[in-house]
Amino acid sequence: MKNNFFEDVYEVVCLIPKGRVTSYGAIAKYLGSKMSARMVGWAMNAAHTRPEVPAHRVVNRSGLLTGKHHFGTPTAMQEALQAEGVQVVDDRVVNFKELFWDPQQELG
DNA sequence: ACACTGACCACTG
DNA sequence: CCAGTGGCCAGTG
User: Fold this and answer.
1) Which residues make up the interface with nucleic strand C when CB must lie under 7 A?
2) Any idea what the CATH number is for the domain that residue A39 is in?
3) pLDDT, tens digit, for every residue of A50-101?
4) Crossing angle of helices A24-31 and A37-46, rounded to 10°
């Protein structure tokens, strides 16, 4: 695989603490100008090939579970989050602002 | 090489 | 709050 690209995204996603969430844009910023939020979303599509990647912890900038349709079932993402103690209502992370985990801030 | 798409984001009015 | 616009970069037909 020449796409290290994905590996960088996966690495950051795997670093997200349990019960916390982050956004595509935050990951993009952390990885640098080489990455854009759209690319992160695109990379997450390939995350299906990496079961170790907690893709459910990645939501859009408003805490909306935009990627839920890419999981096996429509409720898989929500249930995965709730299983970690993250409350989800109407496809949106409750208290998202508090649970938000910024890699740029937390890692360096 | 061209056009279109995509789990997005920020800015403007 | 909502709609429109531009940017981002790689994949696909």
Assistant:
1) A 3, 5, 33-39, 42
2) 1.10.10.10
3) 899 999 999 999 999 999 999 989 899 999 999 999 999 999 999 999 999 9
4) 100
CA of A38: nearest nucleotide by C1' is B8
- The domain in which residue A86 lies consists of 4-99
Say if A108 falls within a structural domain. Answer: no
Q: What single string gives the DSSP state of each residue in A42-61?
A: HHHHHGGG-TTS-GGGEE-T
C1' (B3) to CA (A106) span, angstroms: 40
A84 domain residue, yes or no? yes
Distance separating alpha carbons of residues A65 and A94, to the nearest angstrom = 11
pTM of the model: 0.92
CB atoms within 10 A of CB A29: 17
Number of domains composing chain A: 1
Question: Is A107 among the domain residues?
Answer: no
**What does the alpha-carbon distance between residue A41 and residue A43 come to, in Å, rounded to a whole number?**
5
